[in-house]
């Protein structure tokens, strides 16, 4: 069993005054690794504990990276004399971080302009140092009860306890007795502690287990995907295919090929909520569970998984973007499912795009990457066009299922009744679907009851005290809340401005309000609501998915979570409550993203024998987004998008970086933004836009300004930013955050 004991140098010996210098990267925002003295033989990648100030931290032995492009390389500080170096305190008993991961950390740091230690922190944030204390449980001893008073609670514990150790929690659960009762029995000698054998790590997936019979088209594509896996070379392939065409089934063939070679696979999903259904499919195909990786894993499971990945015994990892930083011993394939999803972008801390970094991760491991989508991003399409990525296409739904029939409900011509949000047309379609014993789904990408609360008397709008944002009503919880900072207040009875009584009214719908309307309109429907408010955990999501699959519900109402890659055979109608929702707000990718999201929701309909229907409620039926969805012609739409972005070098035809200035006061934010603007670079092919107040001009009490740096594709933004911001020293709590390849423009 792995342990993380420290091999400490003998404390009686004085630290050596001479020795070898070793660079150690620590998980803190230093510009680069720090130098230490190595009292024991150390190799790059070794995890060590080192003194830092008055405490100790885990770090990783680092070497200078010579593979980074010159303009990425970090400035080298002045060397500390050997005599003044402090010695490394100890070496952790874990595998060294593999070279491909170390290079990846350097790369991400350089690309995102993040101190490399903070990127390392994402790879080592698993409390390796905490000794994995062997878990203890209780077993029944040989001792007889003698004259010990046996209460009913004690009796029930003794009935459950056996020679197989059970944790206090488990024993308590199964006997209904409290921990105190269990401890009492231990004191009396009837129970004793024993080590619980660690659960077997991860099963071995079998490439041949449940191999499906592929259609001719599927088989051809699968073969193309397997090629680079077998030869073990870096190559990116876009796997594009209509919804329900079997993309998952097809890339599973590449997974199988990789397993057959004895290498490891990483599959990234945009959201952990999807991992349950994915895992089920994986088990059916490969007869064993994959290792799952996301931020909700318990500390123990994280440690086990990390080690199993490092040792190579976890063969397939499915996870959120953070799985990119796992120490794969022998990575042979990277898959990014739903590659167009903006959820792959991390917006806090180290701001990186999971899809783009997955490609880098694959390249540094000499492994192929597969990007999967029904509606690929323009970024990926541009890479296909330029020949950097290969392109494989699945054109037909599996098993003869046809694509759903998408039509518009013109809300100007066919409006709902006053105060309601579901049009007569949509309601009729739902009635018909439910009557046939099929399932319908209503999609609205907005949590809560209403996005705005307004005073009927004076027009006052309920706003967040910390952000420039309206408060969203969550009626079930009786609160108004800010979706940006989490500020919460009770819904007041009277207007806080003019004190008119009962004058506050909700404006517009969130899914709570749609649910209320649906309950009245379809009293016999069996409703299920799916949103992050009702599905707190992956387990809750799995349960909801099961209810839908088993037909326990027939009307599903949800936010974007329902749009994901679910496969619900009985679902035949999808109603989009507000198809125009994503189009506002001047975001570069607003139209692209709306098309992708709505097409994905639409793709949930009619995946089995019954034909699906999709109704889009819209006030702008002539918008290119609606045309693309109704005609199912994304190519034309994406070509138009490309033509709009190409001339002025918007991504992917140019490069973009956002500078977000924030400060405790508006004046301080303005001052820093001005200073930055004055120092702006001037050269051919480089343009600076702004400063301008951010759309969220105040966020969590901080005032925000934005600038954009836009360059032609051949000009990297990192060296420009380093030089530009190098001399800017924000003071008084002001700061500037850099977002390379921004996705959000808030
Ligand atoms: N060759 C096959 N044999 C048996 N079942 C298949 C085959 N191909 C696809 N399927 C089944 O068809 C359904 C749809 O396939 P899958 O989910 O892989 O499509 P997809 O393209 O990934 O869909 P989406 O993009 O909508 O998520 C699944 O239930 C899958 O198991
Ligand atoms: Zn707020």
Automatic annotation (TrEMBL):
Organism: Gluconobacter aidae
Keywords attached to this entry: ATP-binding, DNA replication, DNA-binding, Helicase, Hydrolase, Isomerase, Metal-binding, Nucleotide-binding, Primosome, Zinc
Positions contributing to Zn(2+) 2 binding: 464, 467, 482, 485
Residue ranges, annotated region (Disordered): 1-22
KW Nucleotide-binding (keyword) present: yes
Sequence similarity: Belongs to the helicase family. PriA subfamily.
Protein's UniProt name: Replication restart protein PriA
Functional description taken from the UniProt entry: Initiates the restart of stalled replication forks, which reloads the replicative helicase on sites other than the origin of replication. Recognizes and binds to abandoned replication forks and remodels them to uncover a helicase loading site. Promotes assembly of the primosome at these replication forks.
């Amino acid at each position: 069993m792995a342990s993380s004991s420290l091999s400490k140098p003998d404390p009686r010996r004085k630290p050596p005054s001479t020795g070898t210098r070793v660079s150690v990267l620590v998980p803190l925002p230093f510009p680069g690794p720090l130098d230490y003295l190595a009292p024991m033989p150390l190799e790059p990648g070794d995890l060590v504990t080192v003194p830092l100030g008055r405490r100790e931290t885990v770090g990783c032995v680092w070497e200078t990276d010579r593979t980074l492009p010159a303009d990425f390389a970090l400035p080298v500080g002045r060397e500390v004399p050997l005599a003044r170096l402090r010695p490394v305190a100890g070496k952790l008993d874990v595998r060294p971080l593999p070279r491909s991961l170390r290079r990846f950390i350097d790369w991400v740091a350089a690309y995102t302009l993040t101190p490399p230690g903070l990127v390392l922190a994402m790879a080592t944030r698993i409390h390796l140092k905490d000794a994995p204390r062997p878990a203890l449980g209780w077993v029944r001893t040989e001792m007889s009860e003698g004259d010990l008073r046996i209460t009913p609670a004690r009796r029930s514990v003794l009935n459950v306890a056996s020679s197989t150790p059970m944790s206090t929690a488990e024993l308590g659960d199964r006997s209904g007795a409290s921990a105190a009762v269990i401890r009492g029995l231990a004191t009396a000698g009837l129970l004793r502690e024993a080590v619980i054998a660690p659960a077997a790590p991860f099963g071995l997936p079998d490439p041949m287990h449940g191999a499906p019979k592929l259609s001719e088209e599927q088989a051809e594509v699968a073969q193309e995907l397997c090629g680079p896996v077998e030869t073990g070379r870096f190559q990116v392939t876009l796997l594009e295919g209509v919804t329900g065409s079997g993309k998952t089934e097809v890339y599973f063939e590449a997974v199988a090929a990789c397993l057959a070679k004895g290498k490891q696979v990483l599959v990234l999903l945009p959201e952990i909520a999807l991992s349950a259904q994915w895992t089920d499919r994986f088990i059916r195909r490969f007869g064993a569970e994959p290792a799952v990786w996301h931020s909700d894993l318990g500390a123990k499971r994280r440690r086990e998984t990390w080690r199993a990945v490092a040792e190579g015994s976890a063969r397939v990892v499915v996870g959120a973007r953070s799985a990119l930083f796992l120490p794969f011993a022998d990575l042979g394939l990277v898959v990014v499912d739903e590659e167009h999803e903006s959820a792959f972008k991390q917006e806090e801390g180290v701001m990186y795009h999971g899809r783009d970094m997955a490609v880098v991760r694959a390249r540094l491991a000499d492994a192929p990457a597969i990007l999967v989508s029904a509606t690929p991003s323009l970024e990926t399409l541009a890479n296909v066009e330029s020949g950097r990525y290969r392109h494989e296409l699945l054109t037909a739904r599996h098993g003869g299922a046809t694509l759903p029939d998408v039509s518009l409900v013109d809300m100007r011509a066919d409006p709902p009744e006053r105060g309601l949000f579901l049009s007569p047309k949509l309601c009729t379609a739902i009635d018909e679907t439910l009557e046939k014993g099929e399932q319908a789904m209503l999609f609205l990408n907005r949590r809560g009851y209403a996005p705005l609360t307004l005073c009927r008397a004076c027009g006052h709008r309920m706003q967040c005290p910390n952000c420039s944002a309206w408060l969203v009503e969550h009626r079930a919880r009786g609160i108004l809340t800010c979706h940006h900072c989490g500020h919460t207040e009770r819904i007041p009875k009277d207007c806080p401005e003019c004190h008119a009584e009962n004058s506050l009214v909700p404006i517009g719908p969130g899914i709570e309000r749609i649910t209320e309307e649906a309950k009245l309109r379809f009293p016999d429907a069996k409703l299920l609501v799916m949103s992050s408010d009702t599905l707190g955990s992956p387990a809750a999501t799995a349960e909801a998915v099961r209810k839908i699959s088993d037909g326990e519900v027939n009307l599903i109402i949800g936010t974007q979570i329902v749009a994901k890659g679910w496969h619900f055979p009985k679902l035949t109608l999808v109603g989009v409550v507000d198809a125009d929702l994503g189009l506002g707000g001047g975001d570069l990718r607003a139209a692209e993203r709306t098309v992708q999201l709505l097409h994905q929701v639409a793709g949930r309909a009619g995946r089995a024998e019954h034909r699906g229907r999709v109704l889009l409620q819209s006030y702008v039926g002539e918008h290119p987004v609606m045309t693309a969805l109704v005609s199912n012609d994304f190519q034309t739409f994406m070509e138009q998008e490309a033509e709009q972005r190409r001339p002025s070098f918007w991504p992917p035809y140019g490069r973009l970086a956002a500078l977000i200035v924030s400060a405790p006061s508006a004046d301080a934010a303005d001052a820093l933004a001005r200073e930055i603007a004055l120092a702006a670079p001037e050269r051919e092919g480089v343009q600076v836009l702004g400063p301008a107040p951010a759309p969220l001009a105040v966020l969590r009490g901080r005032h925000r300004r934005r600038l954009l740096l836009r360059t032609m594709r051949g000009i990297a933004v990192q060296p420009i930013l380093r030089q530009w911001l190098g001399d800017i020293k924000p003071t008084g709590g002001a700061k500037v955050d850099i977002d390379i390849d921004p996705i959000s423009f808030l």
